[in-house]
């Protein structure tokens, strides 16, 4: 990745250069699909693709610069993250999911590394990146390719019949982790993680969950509903009580600090 400057405007751009010689046919196909998808996007919370160059030995993607870093790095660099902050982040991401789901796009690899923040570190300015394994869907048939990052993968992706609601599950995992500092499904390796996810029994009774308000707990439970037919869409999640409520709910400041300490440890690992 290189940092470049547009000669006419003086604006900075992130330039990703890929050597053709090191790419398989599948990787080239995924790249072309990513370029096609990003060229259709125009949303403040999705990284913007300005240009794509298909040259003799390289592909070059010229993209928006997002200088604030990855989501968890930004969070763990803060003094605290309140429930208000978390709601702002998750509602922003849900609105973004709703946008590209409405255009017939599933991200399929939504995770903290693929959410970047602007230099101001404002959660409302968070941007989703890396549509390299995104897919188009028609709303009628299901996808069946097992793909993504196990920690954030929905159970139906593993069993081979899924749609856009797999992104809702992934965002639910991120929300769980921001609230508690720990993942809902943990294992020493990918296979162990997958088995935990397929059992679908995160703990909502002990540890950090003891002091998290019921309205917040119910929201996370909805996003992590095992049955995708019963799991709400991104649009439906935006109508759930915690997101819609005008009344602020708060968490004990000491618990906020404990959550950050756990998240720092997980992020480092």
Summarize the structure.
Helix content is 39%, strand content 12%. With 269 residues, the protein is of the alpha+beta class.
Task: Please specify the SSE layout and strand pairing.
Layout: E1 2-5, E2 12-19, H1 25-39, E3 49-54, E4 58-63, H2 71-76, H3 83-102, E5 105-106, E6 115-116, E7 127-128, E8 135-136, H4 155-159, H5 165-180, H6 190-199, H7 214-223, H8 234-237, H9 241-244, H10 253-268
Antiparallel strand pairs: 1-2, 2-4, 3-4, 5-8, 6-7
CATH class of the largest domain: Mainly Alpha
Structural class: alpha+beta
Q: What's the CATH H-level homologous superfamily of the largest domain?
A: Transferase(Phosphotransferase) domain 1
Oligomer: single chain
CATH architecture of the largest domain: Orthogonal Bundle
**Poorly predicted sequence stretches spanning 5 or more consecutive residues:** none
What features would you describe in this structure?
The chain has about 270 residues and is of the alpha+beta class. The chain has two domains: about 1-65, Phosphorylase Kinase, domain 1, CATH 3.30.200.20; about 70-269, Orthogonal Bundle (Transferase(Phosphotransferase), domain 1), CATH 1.10.510.10. It has ten helices and eight strands. The protein has helices at about 25-40, 70-75, 85-100, 155-160, 165-180, 190-200, 215-225, 235, 240-245, 255-269, and strands spanning about 1-5, 10-20, 50-55, 60-65, 105, 115, 125-130, 135. The strands form three sheets. The protein has a four-stranded antiparallel sheet, with helices on one face. The protein has a two-stranded antiparallel sheet with strand order 5-8. Strand 3 (about 50-55) and strand 4 (about 60-65) form a beta hairpin. Helix 3 (about 85-100) packs antiparallel against helix 5 (about 165-180) and helix 5 runs antiparallel to helix 7. It is globular, with a radius of gyration of 19 Å. The two termini are about 25 Å apart. About 30% of the residues are buried.
């Amino acid at each position: 990745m290189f940092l470049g400057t547009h000669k006419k405007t003086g604006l900075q751009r992130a330039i990703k250069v890929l050597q053709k010689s090191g790419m398989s046919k599948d990787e080239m196909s995924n790249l072309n699909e990513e370029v096609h998808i990003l060229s259709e996007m125009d949303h403040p919370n999705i990284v913007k693709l300005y240009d794509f160059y298909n040259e003799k030995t390289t592909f070059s993607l010229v993209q928006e610069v997002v200088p604030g870093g990855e989501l968890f790095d930004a969070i763990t660099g803060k003094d605290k993250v309140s429930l208000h902050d978390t709601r702002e982040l998750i509602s922003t991401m849900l609105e973004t999911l709703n946008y590209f789901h409405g255009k017939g796009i599933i991200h399929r690899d939504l995770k903290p590394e693929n959410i970047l923040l602007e230099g101001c570190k404002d959660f409302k300015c968070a941007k989703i990146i890396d549509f390299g394994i995104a897919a188009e869907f028609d709303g009628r048939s299901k996808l069946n390719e097992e793909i993504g990052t196990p920690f954030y993968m929905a159970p139906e992706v593993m069993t081979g019949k899924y749609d856009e609601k797999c992104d809702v599950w992934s965002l639910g995992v991120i929300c769980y982790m921001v609230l508690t500092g720990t993942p809902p499904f943990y294992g020493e390796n990918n296979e162990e993680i997958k088995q935990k996810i397929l059992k679908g029994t995160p703990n909502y009774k002990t540890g950090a969950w003891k002091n998290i308000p019921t309205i917040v707990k119910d929201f996370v439970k909805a996003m992590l509903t095992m049955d995708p037919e019963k799991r709400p869409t991104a649009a439906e999640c935006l109508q759930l009580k915690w997101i819609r409520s005008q009344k602020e709910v708060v968490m004990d400041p000491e618990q906020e600090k404990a959550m950050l300490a756990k998240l720092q440890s997980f992020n480092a690992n």
